[in-house]
Amino acid sequence: MPVESLVETALRDPDPDGTARWQAIAALHERGDLETFTAARRLCGGPTTAERMLGVDILGRLGFVDRSLPILRFMAASEDDPMVLHSVLIAFGHLRDRRALPSAISLSEHPDAGVRYGAAYALPNIMGDRPDPAGMAALRRLAADPDDDVADWACLGVALVSGAAGARSPGSAGRGLTAGGEVQDVRGQVLDP
Length: 193
What we know:
66% of the residues lie in helices and 0% in strands. By secondary structure, it is an all-alpha fold.
């Protein structure tokens, strides 16, 4: 299916989490070509929230990290819509590039809980093997967030990053998880290491 047809299909779905939208995005990701990147870049500058979110959601898993990251960092600094900012942060997490860290740290203090949730997702994925102290401080701050979803995700992130960095005893990074992988309340462990 042509890129423009997939973009139109995704834009017709009014639900940001809609099945048709994400099937079209997955097909665009599979293409992984310059034509798809160009369409996503154009969408990122679009006049509607739906267009900008779609562009970001495509770039987040397309694989053009060196070309996508500057676009996403610009959007992180200039975008006003919380839904788009949330998508930008999720894209940062998927790209796993430490160069996104300043943007994610900055947005970790955003007034919108959805944006802070995106930061809680992005930070543990972009801090690298030796976690950045400012990134860890932002993640710990998010672990005390008044929004439970933000705090829970940040707590998991701190536990996983701390475990990956060897800051805890072996196996302790997974203590916040049940055998099935569900998140348990790890706030006490994270806020008072």
